[in-house]
Amino acid sequence: MDKAKSVVEKKLRKRHAELSERLGRIGRDGRHASGLTPDFEEQASERENDDVLASLDTTLRGEIRQIEVTLVRIRGGRYGICERCSKPIPASRLEILPYAARCVKCEEKSVVV
Prior knowledge:
Helix content is about 65%, strand content about 0%. With about 110 residues, it is mostly helical. About 10% of the residues are buried.
């Protein structure tokens, strides 16, 4: 593996650990499994908080999954190669989005408007 891919892998593993820790904190903060407080105004606030935590949970899990797929691509020697057209993904794109699996052209084709 070349040095650049090794650096990317290290960064992705660090990011994965950070996101996993945040996900764990969300789980520990918990959602009101034991029930909501009797106060209706407080219940509304608790439900809003639960919605935010659920959304954050989904977002973190999505990014973790993208990182995991990218780590597999690195180990398989396919990192930096577009999964659709098999052309190299520009380094500038990978710097911005290290887990990009497609070049910009192919990504634009896959976006449904």
